[in-house]
Structure formats: structure tokens, C-alpha cells
Amino acid sequence: MENLVEQFNDYRARMNERIMDSDNLIIKRLFNLDTNAYAEGHLNEATKEMLGLACSMVLRCDDCVKYHLGKCKELGVTTAQVQEVFSIATLVGGTIVIPHLRRAVEYWDALSQES
Known about the structure:
This protein has helices at 2-21, 25-37, 45-59, 62-74, 79-93, 98-114. With 115 residues, the protein is mainly α. The mean pLDDT is 96.
């Protein structure tokens, strides 16, 4: 399962570098806006990442789910907290979210094995 995390992180880093090499001002601004949106503010970073996780699950973006799960793990979010996020996202998104829930649980397990 560790390979799952490594593959995602390697691919994401490689492609982000490729995208940034294009020197596209709009893309750079979007990436910067995303970075700044998740920075500490009135809400702490962990809360913002959990919000991002729930939204990503409802929008059914597996890459975004993996990214937010990784950040949640880095920030010390517990398995119990992630399970609550999963339940809210599945409730809001409906049963169409269940396949993404499965992959999210698999990825969280892989992240947890790394620790």
C-alpha cells in the first residue's frame, strides 16, 4: 500500500513541476490562491483540509481526496476525525460517493501504514 502513496506523490510533484515550467501566469495564480486558501486563518489548517476533503469527496475528485488526506495526516488529523468527514461527505454527496469513499479509506490506510 505504501506504493500507492509514493506513486501519487511522485506523479503529482512531477506534473506540478511540468505545469509550472510552462510559466503560465493564470495557472500560477490559481495554484497560489489554492495554497493561500488553506493557510492558517480564522480556521486552522487541519479544519480547512477536512473541509477540502469533504468537498473533494462530494465532487468525486480522487486526486483531490488523496491530496487532502495526505495533508490531514501531516497535520495530525485522527482516523476518527477522518471517518466523520467521510460520513458527512457521503451523506451530502449521496451513494454516488461510495466508490470514492472506498478509495479514500484505502488511501488513508496506506498513509497510516507509513506512520
